[in-house]
Amino acid sequence: MELKDYLPVWNKLTEKEKLALENSVVRKKLKKGTVIHNGTQDCNGLFIIISGEIRVYTISDGGREITVYRLFDRDICLFSASCMLNSIQFELTIETQKETDVFILPVEIYKKIMAESAPLANFTNELLSSRFTEVMWLLDQILWKSFDKRLAGFLLEESAIQGSETLKITHEEIGNHLGNPREVVTRMLKYFSGEGMVELARGTIKLTDIKKLQNI
Amino acid sequence: MELKDYLPVWNKLTEKEKLALENSVVRKKLKKGTVIHNGTQDCNGLFIIISGEIRVYTISDGGREITVYRLFDRDICLFSASCMLNSIQFELTIETQKETDVFILPVEIYKKIMAESAPLANFTNELLSSRFTEVMWLLDQILWKSFDKRLAGFLLEESAIQGSETLKITHEEIGNHLGNPREVVTRMLKYFSGEGMVELARGTIKLTDIKKLQNI
Lengths: 216, 216
Fold this sequence. Notes:
Chains A, B: Residues 145-211 form the HTH crp-type domain. Chains A, B: Pfam families: cNMP_binding, HTH_Crp_2. Chains A, B: One of its GO terms (molecular function) is DNA binding. 2 copies of one chain form a homodimer. By secondary structure, chain A is of the alpha+beta class. In chain A, 42% of the residues lie in helices and 25% in strands. In chain A, strand 10 and strand 11 (204-207) form a beta hairpin. In chain A, helix 2 packs across helix 3 (118-144) and helix 5 (171-178) packs across helix 6. The longest helix of chain A is centred in the middle third of the chain and has 27 residues, at 118-144. Chain A is elongated, with a radius of gyration of 19 Å. Chains A and B meet through helix 2 and helix 3 of A and helix 2 and helix 3 of B.
């Protein structure tokens, strides 16, 4: 479990560049709920996830949230180092969803190498493109998909992530992922429950008809 | 009006790279309504706008449209060359809004130089980041801003672009920019008209109270 195992571009870097990264990387265990990045204020470095989960989301003036995307093992969090790209002018909040083990690469070091290394700059381009793809997917969902489809999709996705058909998640947390008030989530879950697709209990949602959820 | 005047990164390229770009660039005058890029199918090159206007939008399965962003003089259209980034996996339609004079750089040439040139790769990173910023702005608008605010903002922006307070645009075209059905646009414009902010006529909208529109 070394840095080089987590950076696919490693073999295209020079020895000097590898050394600079190895000498500056920090490994940290972050508690659940650690805010890595808050709006446009801080710029704490590139976070590479060894294990755990990170949520990237935006908040409205009124305090409503929506998940832009989530990152898991081996993913690289670019926007925690957004200051290294001048043209990034938007606010995101980045927070651990569970205990998360990470490598942190300092912005100045990464930026300096990227300025001279075509492979690292191209690698960063691909990272940025991946995130762009996720945001465009989200935009499509919000614009053209009705809420029942988005909720069914979220429950199935969450079930795959948690590796269980009984999800430990509150209606408010789902609302924060999908950008809807809690009441809207509760109403739709009750409808799903009436249709036999889920069973609701305090703090858990059990998926009882996966096929039907998939059909939505 | 040469290519080098439109590529801010020009002076950081090698002589060989400059020559390769100069020898492959094509200049074209595109008619209004030319579709440069359609979903993920084609990959016609990087378009640099000398003069004119390009609209980048998505279409729902049901045929509804929303403008993701618009490009004007000196802007560079990256997603018409999206195949050069493997991680871009989304569909956009790109179309000229008026007669548009462009430089076109072939994808293979640009991609080849970018693979070796850190300056060009970093320049591309900044382009991508700019577009990302525009998409995040749009996402925020759609998620948290009510339609009256979005419509007022669009009318003011369009007035600045057209350089006139009398806009030549149909309700359907506005709907396609903002992602709403024509009827919704008409209803809100009638409300604006009742409030003395606009005057409606066939094919035109005259802004009669800029201050009030700004206050929305």
